[in-house]
Amino acid sequence: MANGVRSGWGPRPTLDAVAELAGVSRATVSRVVNQSSKVGPEVRARVEDAIRTLGYVPNPVARSLVTRRTDAVALVVGEPSDMMMTDPFLSQLILTTSRELGDAGRQAVLLLTGGDDDHDRITRYLAGGHVDGAIVLSVHRTDPLGQQLRHLPVPVMFGGRPFGDDLGGAGSIDVDQREGARRAVEHLVGLGRRRIATITGSMDHRAAAERLDGYREVLEGYQEKLGAPDPALVAHGDFTRAGGERAMTELLARVPDLDAVFAASDLTAAGALGALRRAGRRVPDDVAVIGFDDLEDVAAWTEPPLTTVHQPVASFGRRLVEALLEMLAGGDPVREILPVHLVVRGTA
C-alpha cells in the first residue's frame, strides 16, 4: 500500500477494515455500500473516504444478496453473430445501448440467438436471477422468444415492437416506421415520379411490414394520379446490400419503365444503386432512390449521396436504457414511438 492506497495483489480490503478506518460499525459501511438513505452525510463522507483510501470493492455476490440486484442487464439480439457484424444499423444500436448502460452503471450481458435451443437457454437465464432486466432487439415474427420474454419476472424492453399488440408486462421503444415510408414515397410523388417501386426488408420483421404498409398507403391515396397499385412494383429483399442488388435487377427486368425506388434500408438502397449503375440507369435522372436508416457509413458514401429516412439511433438506444431503468425503479412499462424525418441528398 503506497500513500494509504491499496495496490498490487495483496489481500482484498474487507468491510471490517473500512469500518475500522472510518470509525464506524460494519453495518454502517454496509448501508453506505448499498446506498441506504439511513446514513447521515457526514458519516457517509467518512466511509466513502475510507473506501477510496483502502481501494475497497464490494463483493458482487454478497451485495446482490442484500440488494437483490445484479447491476447487469441482458442485451438479447434475435440474430446470429454474423448478422450483428454485417448489419450496420443493428451493430450501431447494440454499441449505443451498451454504452448507455455502462454510463448508467450497468453491465451489458450480450446474448445472441442462433436457433431454437438458444431460445430456451436464454429464457431460463433471464428468469434465473442473473440480470435485473433485459433489452431485446431484432425479434422475428416466428421467433418464440418474442412471446416468452413478454412475461418474464424481470422488466423487459423491446427495441422495435414485436408482432402482436399484447406486450404483457414488457415495454417497447420503436420509430415510426410507417410514417417514415410515407414521407419517402410522398417525396417521390412530389418529384413527379409515376412508377414507384419498393424493395422490402425481411418480412418476418415488423419494421419491414410497416414500411411496406406505408408505401402502399401512399400509392393507394394517389390512384387517380398514378393508377391502381401494381404488385409487380414490389420486390422482396432482406435488408442487405446483396438482397437490394438482386431485387433491383428483378424489378428492372419486370418493370423496365420504373422511375423511382423506395428501399427498406440504406444497405438495400446501396445494392439497388449498384444494379442501376450496371444497367446504365442514371440516378436520379432516370430512377430516383430513397433508403431508410441514414447510416453515416452508408448513406454519405454512396454515389450520389443517398436520400434516406433518418432513424435516431442515439436517441433510440438512450430511450431504451432510460425506459428500462424507469421500470427497474418500479415504473409502468414504457411504450413509445420516436419520430423520423427525411434527409434529402442526391439520389432523389
Structure in words:
The chain is of the alpha/beta class. It is built from 15 helices and 12 strands. The strands form 2 sheets. It has a 6-stranded parallel beta sheet, with helices on both faces. It has a 6-stranded mixed beta sheet with strand order 7-6-8-9-10-12, with helices on both faces. Mean pLDDT is 87; it is low at 1-9.
Instruction: State the secondary-structure class.
Output: alpha/beta
End-to-end Cα distance, whole Å, is 66 Å
Percentage of β-strand residues:
15-25%
For the residues shown, what is the average pLDDT? 87
Number of strands: 12
Q: What characterizes the major β-sheet?
A: 6 strands, parallel
Tell me the overall shape.
elongated
Describe the protein's topology.
Blueprint: H1 15-22, H2 26-33, H3 41-54, H4 60-67, E1 72-77, H5 81-86, H6 88-103, E2 107-112, H7 116-127, E3 133-137, H8 144-148, E4 156-159, E5 171-175, H9 177-190, E6 196-199, H10 206-221, H11 223-226, E7 234-235, H12 241-254, E8 260-263, H13 266-278, E9 288-293, H14 296-299, E10 307-310, H15 313-328, E11 335-338, E12 341-343
Helix pairs in contact: 1-2, 1-3, 6-15, 9-10, 12-13
Short description:
The chain contains 15 helices and 12 strands. The chain is α/β, with parallel strands linked by helices and 348 residues long.
Fill in the keyword field for this structure:
alpha/beta; 15 helices; elongated; 348 residues; single chain; six-stranded parallel beta sheet; six-stranded mixed beta sheet
